[in-house]
Design a protein that fits this description.
By secondary structure, this protein is an all-alpha fold. The chain has 2 domains: about 40 residues, no CATH class; about 250 residues, no CATH class. It is about 70% helix and about 0% strand. A two-stranded antiparallel sheet has the order 1-2. It is globular and about 80 Å long.
C-alpha cells in the first residue's frame, strides 16, 4: 500500500487530537459511494430504458468498429486513411462506456460533460470522413498550439455543426428533416454546454435531481444513485450515435461494388457479425423510441 494512506491518516487523526474530538473514520464517504451505486436496482435501471440498453449496444458497436478498422488488433492501422476514424471511433467508444458507468453511478451532470465530448468526437468523425483535407489537418494537429488552432479556426463547434448540415444536404435529407435535426442538435448542445460551463441549474441538478422512479422526488446526488435525468442523457447519446452512423455508413460499409469502404466485412468473422447485428439493431429500434427521450420533460 502506498505510504500516502498513512500520511493522510496521521494528518487527519492529528487534527482531531489537537481539537480534542474523537477521530471519525477517514474513509466514510469513500466506502459509502460504491454502496450507493450498488443499490441501483433493476427497477431503477428499468426507469432509464429503453435508452440504457440501446446505448450499451451503441457503445459495443463503436468498440467493434474500432477493432475492425485494424483487423482486430488494438494498435494504429498502417493505412493512413483509417487512422482518423480509428482514433475517433475508439475514443467515442471509451467515452460511451464511461458515460454508461457514470449514469449508473448517479452522476448525471458529469455524464453530460462526457456526452459533449462524445458528441463532438462523433460529429468530427462525420466531417473528416466527408472531407479528407480536414482529416489531414486533424491528424497533423500534434502540438498544443496546433490543436488549439484546429479547434478554434478549422472546426469550432459552430463550424462543425454547419458542416454536418452541409453533409446532410449532400446525402439527400429534406429541408424539413435538416431543420428538425438542426433544432434537435442545438437544443441538446445547449444543455450539454450548461453542464460543461456550469449554469446554476446545472450546478443544482448535480446536487439534487429527480428520483429514478418518481420524478417528483429530488434526491441528493453527490454520493451517487440513479436519477431520471439520465434517461435524456442516454437517449441523446444513443440517438446521436445512430444518426452519425447513418451519415458515415457509405464510408464504412460496402454499399456498391465499386465502393472502397473502411471496413472489410466477412460474415464468418465474429467482429463483423457483431458490427452488422449492432448496426441493424440500432436502425430497427431507435426510430421506434425517439418520442420517449423527452418523456420526463427535463431540461437538465
Amino acid at each position: 500500500m502506498h505510504p500516502i494512506h498513512d500520511e493522510l491518516f496521521q494528518a487527519w487523526s492529528h487534527y482531531f487530537k489537537v481539537v480534542g474530538i474523537e477521530c471519525p473514520d477517514i474513509h466514510g464517504l469513500r466506502d459509502y459511494r460504491p454502496k450507493v451505486s450498488l443499490l441501483a436496482t433493476e427497477v431503477e435501471i428499468d426507469a432509464l430504458q429503453p435508452w440504457f440498453a440501446v446505448q450499451e449496444i451503441a457503445t459495443d458497436l463503436l468498440f467493434n468498429i474500432y477493432l475492425a478498422l485494424n483487423h482486430n488488433v488494438p494498435a494504429p492501422p498502417d493505412d493512413n486513411r483509417k487512422l482518423v476514424p480509428w482514433a475517433l471511433v475508439g475514443a467515442a467508444s471509451g467515452f460511451g462506456a464511461s458515460l454508461l458507468l457514470t449514469c449508473i453511478a448517479g452522476y448525471d451532470t458529469p455524464a453530460k460533460v462526457q456526452l459533449r465530448t462524445y458528441t463532438e468526437a462523433l460529429l468530427l468523425l462525420v466531417a473528416t470522413q466527408h472531407d479528407p483535407e480536414l482529416a489531414d489537418h486533424y491528424l497533423s494537429a500534434n502540438s498544443d498550439a496546433k490543436i488549439i488552432d484546429f479547434w478554434h479556426k478549422k472546426i469550432s463547434p459552430s463550424k462543425l455543426h454547419k458542416r454536418i448540415i452541409e453533409i446532410e444536404k449532400q446525402l439527400g435529407f429534406s429541408d424539413v428533416e435538416i431543420a428538425n435535426l438542426t433544432e434537435w442538435r442545438n437544443r441538446e448542445y445547449q444543455i450539454l454546454s450548461q453542464s460543461s460551463h456550469l449554469s446554476f441549474l446545472g450546478a443544482m441538478m448535480t446536487c439534487l435531481s429527480p428520483n429514478s422512479v418518481d420524478p417528483d422526488i429530488l434526491r441528493l446526488r453527490l454520493l451517487g444513485g440513479l436519477t431520471l435525468s439520465s434517461r435524456r442523457t442516454l437517449g441523446y447519446a444513443a440517438t446521436i450515435t445512430w444518426h452519425v452512423l447513418r451519415l458515415v455508413k457509405a464510408k464504412f460499409l460496402p454499399i456498391n461494388e465499386s465502393d472502397k469502404p473502411l471496413l472489410t466485412i466477412s460474415l464468418q468473422d465474429p467482429i463483423s457479425q457483431r458490427i452488422m447485428a449492432g448496426w441493424f439493431a440500432l436502425e430497427q429500434t431507435i426510430p421506434k423510441y425517439l418520442s420517449t427521450i423527452d418523456a420526463d420533460d427535463s431540461d437538465a
